[in-house]
Amino acid sequence: MPLASHAAEKSSKPPMNVLFIAVDDLRPELACYGAAHMNTPHIDRLAQEGTLFENAYCQFAVCNPSRASVLGGVRPDTTKVMANNKFLRPMMPDVVTLPQHFKNHDYTSLSLGKIFHHSEREPGDDPQSWSEPAWYHGEPYRQWFTKESNDFLASLKKLPPDKRPKILRAPPFEASPESDDVYPDGMTALKAIETLQRVKNENRPFFLGVGFVKPHLPFTCPQKYWDLYPEESIKLPDNYCRTKGAPEPAFHNGYELRTYGGIPATGDIDDATALKLIRGYRACVSFMDAQVGRVLAELDRLGLRENTLVVFWGDHGYHLGEHRLFTKMTNFELGTHVPLIVRAPSSAQRAAGQRSSALVELVDLYPTLTELAGLELPTHLEGTSFAPLLQEPTKPWKKAAFSQYLRPGKEGIMGRSVRTTDWRYTEWKDREGNDMGVELYDEKKDPQEDTNIASDAANADKMKEMSAILHAGWKVAGPR
């Protein structure tokens, strides 16, 4: 008898379903995380019903490596997935992924939207993980061009051919008169509702992955979500400048953003464009929140709430002008800090609306969901189940969370970062192990990481302490 069925028979309760909601490029700038300017009522409600983790961190601040780590249950040094052009299964042919583990224990395992990373050239999905072929509706090629974008394109045509910039994509933002369901995330929400209705009556528990793309670039969504953030309310961040004293590898040139029309190939982004990017990002967060709300409402309507574990997570953080950066791909706090909310059935959660300040990592999701569902834990996992924190949110926990980022280029510069309760420390080294820079930030005194204090003589002891934690690694930084 499969383990899930055995557990259900032993407890006389139905097996626990899993609704696994993944969101692309979402930083924890949500009302439930203290961002009062954000309109995110559905995610906020989930937080009021579940457990919000205030200090959750990804292992790699870009989509594919982060998701490979989460779904494989191991860290990037093990997956060897360090960019968006390599995928988990070719690198680890025998790995049992998180959804595959549930499928192997008699769950119906389903993927809707973006769960594994999908490349423009190659689908990165993993058929072995799912009971049915994954369902994915990518970003439509057709864009709704505004008068502003049409005027911009017309102006380019007036330039001599050799002076025209190479446009790889349309402009990075739009507000359209269309409905939610014209966009891929709206379609994903509809598919999730339809799927929940179907699996409710099947005599098997389900692991349902629902992946929303927004707020990933381009910042395109219906006008009504832009209207939630009036133009005059948008301001540039206080630290719209480079961190003082940070080494060059800590930054990037915004290469993802620069593939969109209207963004210069080099140099600064003008303030008007920066403000529109911030507004568009926030609009897309609210659009995504509405889709999450539709799915959760249907879960409740179908009477599935009490025996369904809901996990809501962002795959990495994001910059919106802070440190003069846009997008992800850093080891700064804004690149690595992610939202994470878990709503467990009442038997597995002490109270609704609780918060935990414990350090947790996305690689911990695999063992956590496995434990909460009553399944055996695979031996290959490199995370720690934080299921005990649902019962005791203030329980002493990990000493540190670990992230890393590999800068593209022949030098192979890797940044390895460790976050403790009060400090962040990062070392950058090239392929030969040569030092390329070091960073230290006091997260209590300088939570925006405006000044790198690694070179201050007064911090010599703290530098040694943090370096020791980083080099000792995750195996010795577990729950206390």
- The global form is globular
Determine the strand fraction and express it as a percent band.
15-25%
Indicate the radius of gyration in whole angstroms. 22 Å
The tally of helices reads 14
Low-confidence stretches: 1-11, 139-147
Order of H and E elements: HEHEHHHHEHEHEEHHEEEHEEEHHEEEEH
CATH-defined topology = Alkaline Phosphatase, subunit A
**CATH superfamily assignment?**
Alkaline Phosphatase, subunit A
- CATH level-two architecture: 3-Layer(aba) Sandwich
**Alpha carbon gap, first and last residue:** 36 Å
| Helix/strand structural class | alpha/beta
Helical residue percent band: 25-40%
Mean pLDDT: 91
How many strand units?
16
Mind summarizing the main beta sheet? 8 strands, mixed
Q: Please, how many domains?
A: 1
Tell me the layout of helices and strands:
Layout: H1 3-11, E1 17-23, H2 41-49, E2 51-57, H3 63-72, H4 76-79, H5 88-91, H6 98-103, E3 108-113, H7 147-157, E4 173-176, H8 184-199, E5 206-212, E6 219-222, H9 223-226, H10 271-301, E7 308-314, E8 319-320, E9 326-327, H11 333-336, E10 337-338, E11 340-343, E12 354-361, H12 365-372, H13 387-391, E13 401-406, E14 414-419, E15 423-429, E16 435-442, H14 460-472
Parallel strand pairs: 1-5, 1-7, 2-12, 3-5, 4-6
Antiparallel strand pairs: 2-10, 2-11, 7-11, 8-9, 13-14, 14-15, 15-16
Helix pairs in contact: 8-10
Compose a concise summary of this entry.
By secondary structure, the protein is α/β, with parallel strands linked by helices. It has helices at 3-11, 41-49, 63-72, 76-79, 88-91, 98-103, 147-157, 184-199, 223-226, 271-301, 333-336, 365-372, 387-391, 460-472; strands at residues 17-23, 51-57, 108-113, 173-176, 206-212, 219-222, 308-314, 319-320, 326-327, 337-338, 340-343, 354-361, 401-406, 414-419, 423-429, 435-442. A hairpin with a 7-residue loop joins β13 (401-406) and β14 (414-419).
